[in-house]
Fold this sequence. Notes:
Shape: globular
Mean pLDDT: 95
Number of helices: 0
Number of strands: 11
Low-confidence stretches: none
Strand content: over 45%
Distance between the termini: 40 Å
Amino acid sequence: QVQLVESGGGLVQAGGSLRLSCAASGRTFSNYGVGWFRQAPGKEREFVATINWNGGRTDYTDSVKDRFTISRDNAKNTVYLQMNSLKPEDTAVYYCATHALSFRVVPPRTSRDYGYWGQGTQVTVSS
């Protein structure tokens, strides 16, 4: 069993920044990659970013490349999503999730490849 807790969401003006955190417990966190997904009202959940188990590989959806950065600190069992130059269209509930399989070199983008999910944190970007 694993528990994931997201934090760091909030209300920010367009152009501002936020850093989301995903804290994990109950599992050998360092053996698993982690991804961030988001879901806006009335829309399906979408992939945002992912990082593999050792931080050596990352991937981003095109709309956040060069604005968001995913990183991890295995000593703290935490993955971060630094979000800069935020836009109103980034408004959503952001979820973190662990890869379903350990030691994946190439981190996946599809939600079915993820096992445990957090409860989400709201990010609202005002124009």
